[in-house]
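Reopening this ticket.

The earlier resolution said the output was attached, but the attachment link was broken on my side. Pasting everything inline this time so it's all in one place.
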Amino acid sequence: MQDKKRKKSKRVILIILTVIITLSIVWILFLPKKRTEDFSRTVTVTKEIIRDIIQISGYIQPAQQQNLQSPGEGLIKKVAVKEGDTVKKGDLIFALDNTYQTFQVAKQEFLIEKEQLQGYSKNLELMKLELESLKRALRDRSVYAKFDGIVVSFDLTEGSYVMPKDNFGVIIDRSFFKSTVDVSERDVPRLKIGQKVILNFQALGDEEVEGRVTYHSSIAKSSAQRGSTVIETKIVVDKLPENVLPGYSFSGSIIAGEDEEVLLLDQAAISYDKGEPYVERLLENGKFERVNIEVEAYTPGTVKVLSGLKEGDTLRVNTPGMTPPAW
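Inline output:
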């Protein structure tokens, strides 16, 4: 009787084990599996315009500049202009008292006339040279405009007592503007006279100012600021907005060539088969296809696509540690 019970218990246990094993097999075989792509992310091929430019920065200066300094010591006899005035070349700006110099000229002219009346000629040439020197000293008591321009930052009043080299203002020529900038030696092969220049000033916001390259040196120099060898390059701006003043700093670029459209790709999407690059491109049906491509280095983590893909293509990036599917 007990033997029958033991046999029956064994059969029940065997049946239970069989059911458990069967359910386990069914679970493994028919449980929905996550697709490989669920464990991956995707990236898109993008298009970018690469501008062939040379970055520059510097300070803008007028075509010409005249510092208005006192030519000597004395009282200011006449002030002929004020700040903001437009002047022509040769216009009087201000003059020092010249009483003493006028007297010296008149005295020398009298002595020359006396010498001529007395019929002496031995010292006459020397006396005439001295007269010219005295006349120059008389002229040098006045300051004249050296070119057509505008008087800026001028502050001087008649009767003021001044010393030699005292500064009272500036005349600038706004017919054009210029600047000398440094170009890195690696950019020099792309640098040419006549190239277009685009400048940006903080005073103008997003407004751009156009200029051109007029000269670059044939001798390089070391730049402590850049930490490299540079070439001095001169640029000219024909017209500058009134609110941009000489001395303002700018950043900008020299247009060295035509813009280039390129396709860019995250390097993480690229796999290699025997050294040849390929990617997995997403199809409309949700599956991926292998595509052989040509690429070249661009920036860290990004490559330039030369062939095999187009803008907007979606590519799979395998999760680190995953084994790529066999092809």
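Reporter confirms the inline version is readable. The chain has a mean pLDDT of 85. DSSP finds three helices and 23 strands in the chain.
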